[in-house]
Amino acid sequence: MTTRVLVLTASILAENGQSKGLAEHFIARAASRDGVEVTHRDLVAEELPHLGLAELGSWQVAAEERSDEQRALAARSDVLLAELRGHDVVVLGVPMYNLGIPSQLKAWFDRVMRAGETFRYTENGPQGLVEGKRAVILAARGGQYAGTEKDTQTPHLKLMLGMMGITEVDTVFAEGLNMGESHREAALKEARQAIDGLVERL
Ligand SMILES: Cc1cc2nc3c(=O)[nH]c(=O)nc-3n(C[C@H](O)[C@H](O)[C@H](O)COP(=O)(O)O)c2cc1C
């Protein structure tokens, strides 16, 4: 059986991006595993715009009744949704920028968190409709936040994933990357080792 892995990266720092570097490490290790297929989507290259009313409205119109403009707008989300559905594991390379997730990654979530598609509202609150998937968060930060209320990223990401039904989430932290070279090297080494362990279990 093939395990299909979707890797999403969102670093604006190009080849210096540490979360992207960790994602690339994940991809390289996964490539050595039989039965693992990887798709990589760079959300910075993607340049998804902010979600707006016209695009939101296009989802509410039946596919066969959409105007040309609505078809083009709805396609943004449809493509990303199909890609999410077509993979078993979602790996998120997540830089911390200004105490939150990059807006590029939020723009992806804004396209895949669609009522009636990936979750539905019920009398008991939202119910996830995405079944049988796992996620891995690769979190790169200049400072140290894991396990404190200042980690605004991983609880938010887990809430969004969980709302769609993805509740099995592993997190690898690479923290203190701007706290001196020896600290950075040690954090990245530890993160790469944690990734190796996760890839073993794919
Ligand atoms: C625009 C910008 C904002 C940042 N804001 C924070 C921050 O709020 N907290 C923090 O710990 N590090 C911050 N950093 C440092 C990054 O988290 C660090 O460089 C990390 O490696 C970013 O991930 P990346 O290398 O994958 O892009 C910031 C870096 C940039 C470029």
Plain-language structure description:
This protein is an alpha/beta fold. It is built from 7 helices and 7 strands. Strand 6, helix 6 and strand 7 form a beta-alpha-beta unit. The radius of gyration is 17 Å and the shape is globular. The mean pLDDT is 97. The site of flavin mononucleotide has 17 residues, from helix 1. Flavin mononucleotide binds next to helix 1.
Give the helices and strands, then pairings.
Layout (H helix, E strand, L loop, with lengths): L2 E7 L8 H14 L4 E7 H4 L6 H8 L7 H18 L3 E7 L7 H10 L6 E4 L2 E4 L5 E7 L12 H12 L3 E7 L6 H20 L2
Parallel strand pairs: 1-2, 1-3, 3-6, 6-7
Antiparallel strand pairs: 4-5
The site of flavin mononucleotide has 17 residues, from α1.
Bound molecules: flavin mononucleotide
Per DSSP E runs of 2 or more residues, the count of β-strands stands at: 7
Mean pLDDT figure: 97
Helical percentage: 40-55%
